[in-house]
Write a structure and sequence with these properties.
The complex is a heterodimer of chains A (about 70) and B (about 260). With about 70 residues, chain A is mainly alpha-helical. Chain A has two helices and two strands. The chains are: A mainly alpha (about 70), B mainly alpha (about 260).
Chain lengths: ~70, ~260
């Protein structure tokens, strides 16, 4: 075992940082959305966000397929 | 004027619209574009140019590219301010030109500048977060954009790509909601920035299906424009910009709110 910090390898630190860092970032955004929805007295803002994220996800998936096909990747 | 002055930071009342209404906005936007094509094309060209700069940067700093390409789109609602002004003047039966679009910026538009700065800050934050994410956590040796795409889409970067997409879609939903109708509202009426942002979120929240459809139309237009090497922006930017003005007119109840000075 070479380069370790607190008994963690660089790879492990990266993985923890990625999942917790981005996870925290996503959580922060969810909180902002909830507080904005409450302050604006918007009825179904949550429904919109849900639709939006789902549509975006589908779009991202399709884009991935197109890129894979376009670049001839497997 | 109403005797009871409303809370200046509270959202304005909004209307609910039919779910097919966004198509009508596009139609009206197209008609406005046809009436002032030169100003419209000038706005589209500015956005296309920004896109090309982002693309040119890509080979030199591939880790900057994913954020930059998506980040410059965030500032677009403000770049379209001149188009809202043109639609506003056309709605009054005038024949405006490019000079009128530029004049929009010289009207008492301090909150509009505030919104521009806010969106720029959000766009920059997004570029930085994206860069950090890809730069820190992408371990494979990547030197070309193609290698980067291969890594992100099919390689070990798959999870990072999915998380980036989720974070991006949440942030994008938020930015869309606060900027859907707030720039034209700030241009047309004397309201505070906070009130305009909350009004926009409210308009979206009261029309979740119609506005998700509207967002999808905008997303499709952006995808089309990117796929045509930015050429599509020449048309999509003015049409959507003008359409945004009509969306604002349909969604926000502005009775009793003072007009912004000419």
């Amino acid at each position: 075992m070479d380069n370790t910090v607190f008994g963690l390898t660089e790879e492990q630190i990266t993985e923890i940082g990625l999942t917790w860092g981005v996870g925290g970032f996503i959580l922060l955004m969810v909180f902002i959305i909830i507080s904005v929805a409450r302050e604006s007295k918007a009825g179904r803002f949550g429904t919109f966000v849900l639709f939006f994220v789902l549509a975006f996800g589908i779009f991202g998936f399709l884009l991935k397929q197109v890129i894979q096909w376009w670049l001839g990747l497997e | 004027m109403d005797a009871t002055a409303p809370d200046p930071s509270a959202p304005l009342p909004v209307r609910t619209v039919d779910i097919a209404r966004p198509l009508q906005w596009l139609r009206l936007g197209w008609l406005d574009f046809r009436r002032t094509p030169v100003a419209g094309l000038a706005h589209g060209a500015a956005v296309a140019l920004a896109g090309w700069v982002a693309i040119l940067l890509a080979p030199k700093a591939w880790w900057l590219a994913p954020g930059a390409v998506s980040g410059f789109v965030l500032v677009a609602p403000i770049l379209c301010t001149g188009l809202y002004e043109l639609s506003r003047l056309q709605g009054r039966g005038q024949q405006p030109g490019l000079a009128d679009a530029a004049h929009a910026w010289r009207r008492d538009a301090r909150p509009l500048v505030g919104l521009g700065l806010l969106l720029t800050a959000l766009g920059t934050a997004w570029v930085l977060v994206s860069s950090l994410l890809f730069w820190l956590f992408v371990k494979a040796s990547i030197t070309t954009p193609l290698e980067f795409i291969r890594y992100a889409v099919v390689g070990q970067g798959h999870l990072a790509f999915s998380l980036w997409l989720l974070a991006g879609s949440l942030g994008c939903a938020l930015v869309f909601a606060i900027s859907a109708v707030s720039p034209p509202l700030l241009l047309g009426r004397r309201v505070g920035l906070r009130s305009a942002l909350l009004t926009s979120v409210r308009a979206v929240g009261e029309n979740p299906v119609a506005m998700a459809g509207w967002a999808a139309l905008i997303l499709a237009a952006i995808a089309l424009s990117l796929a045509t090497a930015m050429i599509g922006f020449l048309v999509t930017v003015p049409v959507i910009g003008h359409a945004t003005w009509h969306a604002y007119r349909d969604l926000v109840v502005t009775d009793g709110v003072p007009l912004r000075s000419e």
